[in-house]
Specification:
Layout: H1 2-28, H2 35-43, H3 63-71, H4 81-95, H5 105-108, H6 110-119, H7 129-133
Length: about 160
């Protein structure tokens, strides 16, 4: 019993010391600088910023406005057909490995062809069931939100 009490007292002393150290270090820290002071320091003018001056408003664009702006490359508030198709052209250019402006079936199916060759372990030109199973898309399992339900013990 005496050992138990000694353990409890020492644990309480350790917790008390931790709280004391935490509170004393928190009171000696300098206050965080304001965004204005950070901006002035980054500009290097050495002048303290006026805390009473209003901060500039952040842009409040909607997701659709940001998407529109990604397409509107020349910022004329209009999306041309070329601007709209630019991302598709880049994707097409990546597939057109020989740069002739045309996609052959082999260029279009290159990723699939490589996946087949990788799965064909015995290099027979065919996939058996075991080899085919390696081509399945690997998905991470959905996170469990609740622990599995334990069956009730009837012996209790």
């Amino acid at each position: 019993m005496l050992r138990y009490l000694a353990g409890v007292v020492s644990a309480l002393l350790l917790v008390g010391a931790g709280v004391f150290l935490f509170r004393s270090s928190a009171s000696t820290e300098a206050p965080l600088p304001t965004p204005r002071a950070i901006g002035a320091a980054q500009q290097g003018d050495g002048v303290a910023a006026d805390d009473d001056a209003p901060l500039p408003e952040a842009s409040r664009q909607t997701r659709e406005q940001r998407r529109f702006n990604r397409y509107d490359k020349d910022r004329d508030a209009k999306i041309t057909r070329d601007e709209y198709l630019a991302s598709r052209r880049k994707a097409y250019a990546k597939l057109d490995t020989n740069g002739d402006g045309r996609l052959s079936f082999e260029e279009w199916a290159a990723k699939t062809t490589g996946k087949f060759a990788e799965a064909d372990g015995d290099k027979s030109g065919t996939l058996d069931a075991k080899e085919f199973a390696t081509t399945a898309v690997k998905r991470s399992p959905a996170p469990r939100r609740c622990p599995p339900q334990q069956p009730a013990n009837e012996a209790d």
